[in-house]
Amino acid sequence: MNHQHHEHEPDRSGGRRARSRWWAAGLAGMTGLALTAVGVAVLPATDVVARALTSVRPETPDRPSADGERGHRDDGKHHDKAKDKSTGDKDKGKGKKPKGVPVPCKADALIAAINHANARGGAVLDLAPKCTYLLTTNIDGAGLPAITTPITLNGGKHTTIKRAAAADQFRILTVNANGRLTLNHLTITGGYNVGTNGGGILINTGGAATINKSRIIHNFANSAGGILNNGGTLNVRHSFIGHNTASNTGGGILSIGTVGIDRSQLDGNVALTGGGIAVSGGFEITHSKVVNHRAADGGGIFLLSGVFGKITDTRIERNTATGTGGSAIAGGPLQLTMSRVTVANNTATGLGAVFLIDGFALIEDSTIKDNTGADGGGIRNEGELTLLRTKVTGNQATESGGGIYNAGTGTLTLFGTKVVKNAAVTDGGGIFNQAGGTVNLNIASGTFVVKNRPDNCSGNIPGCAG
User: Where does the record place the region Disordered (predicted)?
Assistant: First the structure.
């Protein structure tokens, strides 16, 4: 029997050998996930420079408290500080959410309403404001019935769906094939899923979810602490994904499918690989922040094999990698374009803030600054990387390549790019080119490498004064 009670609440030097460990670390524990290889046409480097990658804009329809209450009212005076930082909460957006069927502040009522909506082919459900729907019963691995039709859950001021502290381990929501879930103005929290994946929300193959002006916070799972997109489609808009934890991959989000993130903030998530987000497949991140994450590899963003995507007008800052490297971004093989992106103040015990393991990447009109790593303070390149009108400055390497470390397998091309005031403990304060690697500076385009310590360049780099 479900009870309800109402009360006011006072409210981480690598090379190829290291890579196999990376993929083992990144994929271990993901049994049951849809890891089918994604087919990607390999473009020559000139094509990558000539044109940005196709935009990925998927089409979709629009620790828990100790109280054990089933559903309770919140007086509205207390709320998680994360909400104040949320990009989405500052943008009120345009238009109005559709009105729907009111759902009283009782978890049983919400369960019944979702069951009814599934049976009737979908619905818009208006949840009560200042209400926490406290879930106590495990329904096939989740606290709520699986979404199998188009269902919109409209929240309001301080509307929360939460797993009770004393309840069995389960995520909050599952979206199955043909399910189309839309969340508006809701907080999803307390999902706890040890030994399996998707702490807050799981989207299965054929399913889709749109997260609008909502918060996915304080959830835990083996992989995908916050949201697991397992072969479906995920859109995150004007939302906050924060303080979620995964013991394996994808602290905030793990997407094996298609994901779009716009005007949102990923903040303070933790995982072994991909603290903020881990991706395999198509993705796009625009006008967003990826900050304060922690992982062994890929502190902010970890890109698994078969990735094609774009990061635009986004800040990736204050992320940490305690293992091989890639404090801000790591991954490959991939096709990646970064435009007007700031990568700053990230720290890696190992290799670079941006670590391109394999594949093609273009970084344009961007800034890579004040990052710290071992071989490669700002960038570690082992693939084919082009920097266009980009500034690499203030980065530090505890070994070689303060600004950029170009590995023996790497091809690095710079157009109109400035590499200045970087530092390395050994050599290559600006750029270090390992034997076998290729660096094209294109001085005529306005590229220069100056004011770096202890030297500007080390290795075979034509046109660079040491």
Answer: 54-102
